[in-house]
Amino acid sequence: MMKAIMILLIYGSTVQAQRLHVLALAENGGHHIAYTKRAKVWLDQLAKENNFVIMGHAPELFDNPTYVLLFRNAISWAFKK
């Protein structure tokens, strides 16, 4: 896992990067916006069971087998709780 080197805005509050382990990054940008890598999947070390995934809202996400597996595993985990 790689350490986050940024501060993330989560649900309106700032979370310091030292608490986070980033699992996946994605490049954002285009249309006059510089491309930057941003955390899309991360774990919060202080929150005992919270994991965060921010993948966007495009239906093409479900064409990505890795995202589909992540999504299915998340649903399976939630139903076991």
Please give a structural write-up.
This protein has one helix at residues 65-80, and strands at 2-3, 8-10, 13-15, 20-30, 33-44, 51-53. The protein is flat and about 45 Å long. It has one domain (2-80). The strands form two sheets. The chain has a four-stranded antiparallel beta sheet, with no helix packed on it. The protein starts with a strand and ends with a helix. With 81 residues, the chain is an alpha+beta fold. Strand 2 (8-10) and strand 3 (13-15) form a beta hairpin.
Summarize the structure.
Helices cover 20% and strands 42% of the residues. The protein has 81 residues and is α+β, with helices and mostly antiparallel strands. The two termini are 25 Å apart.
Weakly predicted, low-confidence segments: 1-13
Number of H- or I-type helical stretches: 1
Report Rg.
14 Å
Distance between the termini: 25 Å
| Structural class determined from secondary elements | alpha+beta
- Largest sheet, order of strands side by side? 1-4-5-6
Report the strand count. 6
Number of domains: 1
**How would you spell out the order of helices and strands?**
EEEEEEH
Shape: flat
Mean pLDDT over all positions: 68
